[in-house]
Amino acid sequence: MSRFSDAVAIQDGACNPIAIANSLQRGIEEIRTEVGGLLPTDAILKDPALRLMVHHTAYLFRAHDCFDQIGGEYSALMDVCEQKDRGNNHERK
Question: For a Cys-Cys bond, which of 20, 21, 27, 51 suits 3, CB 3.0-4.6 Å?
Answer without folding.
Answer: 27
